[in-house]
């Protein structure tokens, strides 16, 4: 994954979480095999179910009316385009009162830990121990 584009992805997701999410925003990252997994989570209300299918499309509008006021509707579309451009993907999840945007990106071969160095018992980081907490 490209560092500049990855930074832009995280910045867009943080901006989105600060604008629309709750009062707690967490960023976690971990490695799974040859994949970097970055999660931006907030304790906000999440996205209405009827809008989830269009969440990553440009200019999320209903006719001439923006579905989200105060936004032009490009941030999440840019995240998707950048992630897919690096052979990755982004997903939205709503679980346990947390809104999560999870980005999966391939890691450069020289950054991938050998299987023997990975701890198979290590679970993905929890929201209780974030890498970064954004107030």
Description:
- By secondary structure, the chain is of the alpha+beta class.
- 21% of the residues lie in helices and 29% in strands.
- The strands form two sheets. The protein has a five-stranded antiparallel sheet with strand order 5-6-2-1-7, covered by helices on one side. A two-stranded antiparallel sheet has the order 3-4.
- A hairpin with a 2-residue loop joins β5 (89-95) and β6 (98-106).
What's a concise summary of this model?
The chain has 135 residues and is α+β, with helices and mostly antiparallel strands.
Number of strands: 7
Coarse structural class: alpha+beta
How far apart lie the N and C ends?
28 Å
Q: Give the % helix.
A: 10-25%
Low-confidence stretches: 61-65
Largest sheet: 5 strands, antiparallel
Q: What is the number of helices?
A: 2
Tell me the β content.
25-35%
Query: What string, H for helix and E for strand, traces the elements in order?
Result: HEEEEHEEE
Give the CA-based shape.
globular
Q: What spatial order of strands do you see in the largest sheet?
A: 5-6-2-1-7
> Radius of gyration, rounded?
16 Å
Give the overall average pLDDT: 79
């Amino acid at each position: 994954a490209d560092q500049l584009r990855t930074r832009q992805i995280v910045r867009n997701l943080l901006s989105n979480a600060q604008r629309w999410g709750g009062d707690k925003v967490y960023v976690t990252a971990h490695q799974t095999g040859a994949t970097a997994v970055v999660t931006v989570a907030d304790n906000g209300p999440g996205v209405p179910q009827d809008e989830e299918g269009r969440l990553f499309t440009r200019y999320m509008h209903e006719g001439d009316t923006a579905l989200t006021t105060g936004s032009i509707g490009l941030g999440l579309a840019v995240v998707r385009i950048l992630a897919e451009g690096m052979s990755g993907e982004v997903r939205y999840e709503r679980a346990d009162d947390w809104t999560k945007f999870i980005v999966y990106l391939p890691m450069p071969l020289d950054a991938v830990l050998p299987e023997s160095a990975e701890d198979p018992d290590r679970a993905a980081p929890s929201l209780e121990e974030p890498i970064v907490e954004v107030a």
